[in-house]
Amino acid sequence: MKVALFIPCYVDQFYPQVAIATLELLEKYGCDVHFPKNQTCCGQPMANSGFEHLTQGCSDLFVENFTGFDYIVCPSGSCTLHIKEHLGVPGIAKKCYELIEFLTDVLIVDDLKVKFPYKVGLHQSCHGQRGLKLAQMSELNAPPFSKVERLLDQVEGLELVNLDRKDECCGFGGTFCVAEEALSVRMGQDRIADHLKNGTQVLTAGDMSCLMHMEGIIRREKLPIKVMHLAEILNGAEISVAEPVS
User: Which are the contacts of 190, defined by CB distance < 8 A and separation ≥ 6?
Assistant: First the structure.
């Protein structure tokens, strides 16, 4: 299948290893992956700030760059959800998948054959969970499920940490972290405290934006937690981490 790789701005600028891991992961499962070089921001930051009427240029360029592919795959739930719900082009939206849902729903990956012998704390981002339905929301009286955990269960040696509040927001929220800086930081501190309490060695998520927010707090407070995108773990990254927190 012919797959276009849609890489968010912050991944492109600050975390290129996440894009590389995504590319390698897709190629492992036989995808013919292409990277449209003229792609730019999808327009989500403007839309989230109340200026969706100014995103038409971004939308038009996205359609121009990503037309003609079987699928569009992005390692970010928030950017994927923006394309699905705000682009206004059904033919493009229905072909756009967040990486985890593409692996589980399209490629139907059931044997990753990778090792990651660490205690991993999963942050389920709000857009992925509540927008893309990657996992059940704990506030609903409904059977639990998690597409992310289904993949992590296939990773040899990985121990998934049992958090006290597994689907609470980290406080990033796009431009919310700029408009409400103090509240955003406190929410992030609360999430990290949950991981510290339960012995997380590696904090992971499908949205590098949430991880970027929490990584800033972890670095400032010099905490023994490493931050990694899910694509890196599922691609078999080799790392060294600090001892788990007791």
Answer: 168, 171
In this structure, the answer to whether residues 93 and 175 fall within a common structural domain is no
Write the burial class of residue 94 (CB in 10 Å: 0-12 exposed, 13-18 middle, 19+ buried).
Answer: exposed
Return the closest-CA partner of residue 223 out of 214, 232, 235.
214
> CA-CA distances (angstroms) from residue 200 to 100, 241, 246?
21, 10, 10
By the 8 A CB rule, do 72 and 94 touch? Answer: no
Question: What tokens appear for 22 in the block?
Answer: 């995504």
Q: In what order do the strands lie in the sheet with 159-160?
A: 159-160, 119-122, 202-205, 226-229
241 part of a folded domain: no
DSSP H or E run through 172: none
Q: Please write the tens of the pLDDT for every residue from 41-83.
A: 888 888 878 888 888 899 999 999 999 999 999 999 999 999 9
**Polymer length in residues for the chain:** 246
Q: What are 89-144's pLDDT values in tens digits?
A: 999 999 999 999 999 999 999 999 999 999 999 999 988 999 999 999 888 889 99
- Co-location of 180 and 201 in the same domain: yes
pTM over 0.85: yes
Q: Where are the alpha helices (DSSP H) in the chain?
A: 9-14, 16-28, 44-48, 56-66, 77-86, 90-93, 99-101, 126, 147-152, 176-179, 181-197, 208-220, 230-234
The CATH number assigned to the domain holding 97 equals: 3.40.50
Residue 103 tokens read as 């692996």
